[in-house]
UniProtKB/TrEMBL annotation:
Membrane association type: Multi-pass membrane protein
Molecular-function annotations in GO: transmembrane transporter activity
Protein's UniProt name: Solute carrier family 43 member 3
Ranges that cross the membrane: 12-37, 74-96, 103-121, 127-151, 281-300, 320-342, 363-390, 396-417, 429-448, 460-481
The keyword Membrane is annotated on this UniProt entry: yes
GO cellular component: membrane
Highest taxon listed in the record's lineage: Eukaryota
UniProt KW Transmembrane keyword: yes
Pfam families xref list: MFS_1
Gene3D superfamilies cross-referenced by the UniProt entry: MFS general substrate transporter like domains (1.20.1250.20)
Cellular compartments annotated: Membrane
Swiss-Prot/TrEMBL keywords: Membrane, Transmembrane, Transmembrane helix
Amino acid sequence: MAVQCPALRVATLLTGLLECLGFAGVLFGWASLVFVFKSEHYFKDLCELNGTLMDNTTNNSTVQADCKAQDERFSLIFTLASFMNNFIIFPAGYLFDRFKTTVTRLIAIFLYTSATLTIAFTSADSALLLFLAMPMLTVGGILFLITNLQVGNLFGKHRSTIITLYNGAFDSSSTVFMLIKLLYEQGISLRASFLFLSVCSAWHIGRTFLLMPRGHIPYPLPPSYRYGLCSGNGSTEEKKMAELEKTEQQSREILSSEHEDPRPGQQQEPLSFWSYVFSRCFAWHLVWLSVIQLWHYLFIGTLNSLLTNLATGDRVLVSTYTNAFAITQSFGVLCAPWNGLLMDRLKQKYQKKVRKTDSSASTVDLCSTVPSLALTSLLCLGVAFCASVPVLSLQYFTFILQVVSRSFLYGGNAAFLTIAFPSEHFGKLYGLVMALSATVSLLQFPIFTLIKGPLQNNPFYVNVVLVLVTLVTFVHPFLVYRECHSQKESPSTAF
C-alpha cells in the first residue's frame, strides 16, 4: 500500500497523543484541584466552627473546623462531571457520526475553552460556576478523545495498539491538575494556569484544520487516502470520502457475514439490537462495569476527604499523598496496553486449539476475555479492601492498584463488547452501556453524604457493603467462561 504523507501521519499520531495526554481526561486529577480550591477558600463558608458558620476570610490553621458540607459540595461537582464523562459518549458518538471530525472538534474546543476561562475567573465568591465549568471541561475532553481514536486507522496492523495507547493517555492526563497544584505551591496562580490552558485552544484549532481530516478516517485505509495538509481539492476530497465510507460500510457487512461461519444445518437468523440489550450477557456486563466504575469514581471524588481524615488534618501530609496519587495516575498510559497484550496472547494460544476441536473463532475470542474480566474484578477488590483499611501508608499501594485496575477496566470493556456482540451494534451498545453505568455512578454522592452525615464520617459499614457488591462482579467472567465451554458443544448466538 502506498503511503501518502508519512510525516503528516506521524505528526497526527504524536500531536494526538499529546492532546489526549494534556487535555482529554484532566477531570480525574480532581483531588489535586480540590486541594487548590480549598487553599483559595472555595465553599469555605460552609465549614462550621463551634456551631457557627466560618467566614471566607477565616484562615486559622490551629482551629479544627467541621467542613463536611464543603466536602459534599466538591463531591457533588465531581459526581456531575464524572456522570457527564460517560453519559455524553452516546450522544457524542452520534454527533461524531453525523457531523464528522471538524465540526465535532470545533464544538469540543468551544466547550473546553469556555470551561477553562470560567474556572480561571472564578473565585470563592463565584465558586458555584464550577457546577457549569467542570461538566463542560469533561465533555470537551471526551470529544477530543473520540475524534483522536480514529487516528489508529492510519497505521493498519498497529491500529489496536494506538487506540489502547490513546485511552491510556486519557487516563494519564489527570496529571495536569497535579502540575497546576505544584505550580500553585510555587506561586503561580490558579488563574494563570487555566488561562494558559485556554490559550492552548489556538493549538487545537490549528491541529483541527492542518493535521486532522474533515470527515472520518476510513478503515481499512485506501492506498490513495489523503487528509489535512495533503488533501488537495476540498470538494473533490469530500466526494471521495463519501464514496470511501460507503465502500467501507459494504466491506464491513461482507466481513461480518463471513465471520458468522454458519454450520451445516444451522440457520442464521439476525437478531435485533434490543435482543442483545436485554440479553443476560449485556446485563451482567453492565453490572460488572457499573460496580467497578462506581468504586473508582467514589475513590477519586472522595480522596481529598479520605486523606484529610487519615492525616488528621495535616495539610503537608495531604499534599504529599495527593501528589503521589497524581504521579501514579501518569502511568496509566503505560498500564493500558497490558490488557490488550494479555488478550492477544491468550487468543493466539486458544487459536491452536481450534484446529484440534470444533470450536469457532468467535468462541476463541470470547474465551480470551475471561482472564481479563476476572483480573479487573480482582484488582478492583484489592482497591476496595485497601481503601477500606484506615492506614495512611497503605494508600500508596491503593494508588497503584487503582491506576492498573482503571486502565484494565475501560480497555476490557471495549474489547469485550467488540467480541461478544456483532460489529454493526458495537457503537450503540458501547454508548448505551457507558450511559447506563454513568447513571449508576450518581450513587457516589448519596454514599458520600451518608458517610459524612448519619455515619458520622465512619465509612466502615459502607465499605463492607461495597466490598460484598464487588464480589458480585466475578459472576460475569464466570458466566462467560461457562458460555465458552457450552458453545463448544452447542453454539449459541447470545446468552
